[in-house]
Amino acid sequence: MALARRTFFRWATGLGAFVSAALVGVPSVRAFLAPLARKVKRTSWIKLGEADQFEAGAPTRFDFAESVNDAWVETRALRGVWIYTDDNEKFTVYNAHCPHLACSYGFEKEKGVFHCPCHHGLFELKTGKVLGGPPPRALDTLETKVEDGILYAAYQDFRAGVAEKVAVA
């Protein structure tokens, strides 16, 4: 039985439409469902040093390099934290990026405050509370732990410019 020309074109058109829909649809569905399959980022604990080496009542800046993977490209990024303690037992560790625009900030010893030079944000030393300037929230604190006399911090970055503390994956 010979296939009629009109029937052949109907089948060919249908097959072509199906293949085209699959070529466009499968990647679209995959991109839509990809966040569900995303791996949970594990916490990276950074060794900051011996707990008794930090001067009580004065903040200490600690910088470290971290490997960052973006698809096939691996780069090294310089990160930083500020460490503060009153008694060398309880520690407050701040992410070293200002919550306003993620600029690096410093400590003004004369005034006893953290100062961001980008837009003159001022932060309280002990709590990280905003004292002045445009920052939308207090300094971002990091989780800490002391094991065998060594201070560790769970480093992570947060979205800049928003009032809520939102971790960046």
The CATH C-level name of the largest domain is: Mainly Beta
Taking pLDDT < 50 over at least 5 consecutive residues as the criterion, the unreliable ranges are none
Which architecture of the largest domain would the CATH scheme give at its second level? 3-layer Sandwich
The H/E string reads HEEEEEEEEEE
Alpha-beta classification: alpha+beta
First-last Cα distance? 62 Å
User: What is the averaged pLDDT score?
Assistant: 91
Within the largest sheet, what's the order of strands? Answer: 1-10-9-4-3-2
What is the global morphology?
elongated
Q: Give the domain tally.
A: 2
Share in β-strands: 35-45%
- What profile does the largest beta sheet have? 6 strands, antiparallel
Topology-level CATH name of the largest domain: Rieske Iron-sulfur Protein
Give the full name of the CATH homologous superfamily of the largest domain.
Rieske [2Fe-2S] iron-sulphur domain
Number of DSSP E strands:
10
Give a short synopsis of this structure:
The chain folds into two domains: 5-37; 44-155, Rieske Iron-sulfur Protein. The chain has one helix spanning 5-33, and strands spanning 44-50, 60-70, 73-85, 91-95, 106-108, 113-116, 121-124, 130-132, 141-147, 150-155.
Question: Can you characterise this structure?
Answer:
The protein has a six-stranded antiparallel sheet, with no helix packed on it. It has a four-stranded antiparallel sheet with strand order 5-6-7-8, with no helix packed on it. The chain is built from one helix and ten strands. By secondary structure, the chain is of the alpha+beta class. It has two domains: 5-37; 44-155, Rieske [2Fe-2S] iron-sulphur domain (Rieske Iron-sulfur Protein), CATH 2.102.10. The chain is elongated and about 95 Å long.
